[in-house]
Description:
This protein is an alpha+beta fold. The chain is built from 7 helices and 4 strands. The chain has a 4-stranded antiparallel sheet.
Amino acid sequence: MATVKIKIKNMVCDRCKRVVAEELQQLGYTVVQVELGEAELSTEKEVIDLEQVREVLKNNGFELLDDRKTQLIEKVKLAIIDLVHTVGEQEIQVNTSAYIAAKIGMEYNYLSTLFSSSEGITIEKYVILQRIERAKELLVYDELSLKEIAYHWVTVVWRICQTSLRK
C-alpha cells in the first residue's frame, strides 16, 4: 500500500479540509489525514493519478501544488491565517516575522522576498488584509462587537507603532 502526501493551495478552513477529504475518498483513495494545505493518501494502486486529483481539486476551488516555491508561499499564507484566526488575542504579543519564520523553519527575509515577488504584495499587507477579513467574519457572525474589534485593532496598531518608533 502506497502512502503519499500532496500539497494543496487555497485551503483556509475546516470546511475545506472536509471537502478535500470527501473528494479524495470519492476517487477511491484512503485519506489518512487532511490538514490545511496538505493531504496524506493511502492507496492500493501503485501510482496516484495526479491529473485526476488536480482536476477534482480545481473543480472545488483548490489547486495541487507541484513546485517548492509555490509550496513555501502557501505555507506562509497558512501561517498568517493561523496567526490571525487561531492565535487571536495572543497576537498582540507575537512578532509576526518571528512567528512566520519559526512556523516554517526558514529565514524571514528569504520568505518575504519570495512572497512579494510571487504575490505582488508584501507579507505585511497580506497580514493586514487577513486581519480585515477576520474582523468582517467576527462582525457578520456576531462573535465580537464592533467596540471589541476596534479595541483589539487599536492595541495591535499601537504595538506596531511602538516597534517602529524603537527602530
